[in-house]
Amino acid sequence: MARTPIPRRPRPWPVRAGLALVALWRDPRTAGALPWVLSLALHAGVISLAAAVVWRVRSARDLTPPLVVSFDEPAIAPAMAKPPPPPIEPDPAEALERILSAPAESIPTQAPALAPLPEPPEVLAPAAAEPVLPEPAAEDAPAVEFSGLGVADARDIVYVVDASGSMITSLPTVLDELERSLSRLHPIQRFQVFLFHTTPEGGAGFEWPALPPGVAKPVLIDATRANVRAAIEWARSVPARLRSNPLPALEAALDLRPDAVFLLSAGATDEALLGMPASEALARLDRLNPARRGARPVVIRAIQILDEDPAGLLRRIAEAHGGAGGYKFIGRDGLSSLRPDGAPP
Q1: 257 assigned to some structural domain
Q2: Which residues form the domain of 37?
Q3: What residues form DSSP beta bridges with 195?
Q4: Residue 7 counted as domain residue
Q5: In terms of domains, do 26 and 170 share one?
Q6: Is the dihedral of CA 312, 315, 319, 325 positive or negative?
Q7: What residues are paired with 150 via a beta bridge?
Q8: What tens digit of pLDDT does each residue of 166-194 get?
Q9: Which residues of the chain have pLDDT under 50?
Q10: For a designed S-S bond to 205, which of 72, 134, 248, 342 qualifies (C-beta 3.0 to 4.6 A apart)?
């Protein structure tokens, strides 16, 4: 029985090519030409690969739409703009060589001035609370002036003003001067105002503003704007009437133990109204305000207006309790200088 030959599968072309090269290598007739053949084949492959790359790049460039610049729309879209070239890093060796080979005069001797640093933004400090004025001692109190007479370092002041019938035409001018004096006081100071004239039997012989409201007897009040305004409004509402007797109001003022008293009167001393001679009235005031080591607790400044007092009671009070310059006389002509319009009283 005859065998059927099994057909052989054809070998791949790389295998056949390799076998052919081996045969040529072993054949002495072709062994010398084989390196040349291999070199030519290698170069041909490289050339073919380069041609394929060039063809692909050119084909891709041909597919890119052309860039068109229009005068109506000259701007180039960001996607079509050519990216900037990457920065070239300087070679440190070349830079050093340029510095060493440069002439000496071209090298700066000073470093370039640096721009000043910006100033830090201003930080606003938080608003501080309004300071509370401390309670000062009497020697730190501001000076006070009334009708041309002044007193320094007075914290508590009492004004004793004549409101008798002789002051009918002059009282408005005196109250204007009182208002100017009170308005200059500092809120740390205290004051009181007495308007004196004779009163019926059993009366105090003087009036004072009911500040604070409801008080039964006079007290020193703070020199706030509200208190000053209330005191002036009250004083302008009191009519000048009856006769003059300053002693009860002056004694009440000394009872408050102020630092200073301003006493203003237009009447002549009437011992019948005082109820005692002038000398006895002075002795009584001396007991209320005694001298200690050459000084008295309360300074009394006295102002006599319109007419001189023959008994000179205010002058003698000022000399004993007010010291040098503690007395002043203002006549009818001089009183007009206290009026804002300069008109006679």
Answers
A1: yes
A2: 16-45
A3: 161, 207
A4: no
A5: no
A6: negative
A7: 145
A8: 999 999 999 999 999 999 999 999 999 99
A9: 66-81, 126-139, 341-345
A10: 248
Q: Which two tokens stand for residue 306?
A: 């319109």
Judgement on whether residues 41 and 148 belong to the same structural domain of the protein: no
Tens-place pLDDT, residues 227-284: 999 999 999 999 999 898 999 999 999 999 999 999 999 988 888 888 899 999 999 9
* Residues near 37 by beta carbon (within 8 Å), at least 6 away in sequence: 24
Buried b (16+ CB within 10 A) or exposed e, 146-178: bbebebebbbbbbbbbbbbbbbeebbebbbebb
Output the six-digit token pair for 237. Answer: 């509402």
Q: How far is CA 47 from the centre of its chain?
A: 87
Task: Compute the Cα dihedral for 76, 78, 80, 85 and give only its sign.
Answer: positive
CB 301 within 8 A of CB 197: no
In a domain? residue 267: yes
Residue 308 domain flag: yes
The candidate with the shortest Cα–Cα distance to 187, out of 131, 233, 234, is: 131
CB-CB contact of 192 with 219 (8 Å): yes
